[in-house]
TrEMBL record:
InterPro entries: Cys_rich_dom (IPR004017). It comes from the Bacteria. One of its GO terms (molecular function) is oxidoreductase activity. Pfam families: CCG. This is Oxidoreductase (Cysteine-rich protein). The lineage of its organism: Bacteria, Pseudomonadati, Pseudomonadota, Gammaproteobacteria, Enterobacterales. One of its GO terms (cellular component) is cytosol. Residues 3-85, 133-216 form the Cysteine-rich domain.
Amino acid sequence: MDVNFYVTCIGDALKSQMARDSVLLLEKLGCRVHFLEKQGCCGQPAINSGYIKDAIPAMKNLIKTFEVNDYPIISPAGSCSFAIKSYAKYLVNEPDWAIRAEKIANRMFDLTSFIVNQLNIVDVGASLKGKAVYHPSCSLFRKMGVKEEPLTLLRHVKGLELLPFDNMETCCGFGGTFSVKMAEISGEMVKEKVHHIMDAHPDYLIGADVSCLLNIGGRLEREGRPVKVMHIAQVLMSNEEELCH
């Protein structure tokens, strides 16, 4: 199957390993991955800050970029996926663009739901020994309704024990620009999240949105917690042979 990969700004600038593992995983599962070089920011920071007009050029750029083919568009971030799937409502005053945006939205998938629901794969052959907690990001879980797919994939990772923890579905406090504009509140939210995570005594914190992982991981590091933070793509590309080196 041919697919487009949407790398996201964080994947491009900060977390290239996550982007690389996402592509390698898709290839491992039989996909031919296309990277359209004209892709850019989805406009989410501006959208979340209320600057819709300023975000429209970025929206139109992505729409035009992904119109060159009709392949599924896969993103390793729920927040970016949801932003792109929401374009049509922001372009309602430009009906032609809104229609084009809706067509793009219908081809947009987050990595985990694409693997489980489109490729019909639940076991990717990964292996990772240890105990882990999974943080469901607000964009993926609340906005896109993707809840069981990441958990299904993780439950099939050989050697990995998934642990429950209190208030796991509570926001970590990142929220994009919220963590900047409301830094004190955000700080208390992530502090509480880390407290609940550490009560479970995990070896790993796993998530499907790098932005949340950066936020929670930063707090874990500041507290000196020995928990390895991993995007789910990294986990699904793990195997025992790699872990031995």
